[in-house]
Design brief:
- By secondary structure, the protein is mostly helical.
- The chain has one domain.
- It contains 5 helices and no strands.
- The radius of gyration is 16 Å and the shape is globular.
């Protein structure tokens, strides 16, 4: 195996949004994910839990919280039109407020 050209410091890893999100999910869901791949596996197999965690972590600005996370798990996320049903949010507003 080739040696990586660069490896981030422990401090740099600790200060990434992914590390903060992992800690948030661990606390929010009472989990103990320590690796990205564990978090990824959980996120794709627990969609109804993942999206609310991400919503709260990102502090999504919306006129109302969603009523239901997902209608039908048999539909791929790229085709689904019913994720976070009931929420009305603007990505422009989110960006303007620093999100």
């Amino acid at each position: 195996m080739k040696k990586p050209l660069w490896t981030p410091s422990v401090e740099r890893i600790r200060n990434t949004r992914m590390t903060r999100f992992t800690g948030f999910v661990n606390e929010w869901c009472r989990r103990t994910f320590s690796h990205y791949f564990d978090l990824h596996d959980w996120s794709v197999s627990n969609i109804p839990d993942f999206w609310p965690a991400l919503w709260d972590f990102l502090e999504i600005k919306a006129s109302g919280r969603y009523d239901k996370v997902v209608e039908d798990l048999s539909i791929s996320t790229s085709r689904a039109r019913s994720h976070l049903r009931g929420s009305r949010h603007s990505l422009c507003l989110q960006r303007q407020e620093g999100g």
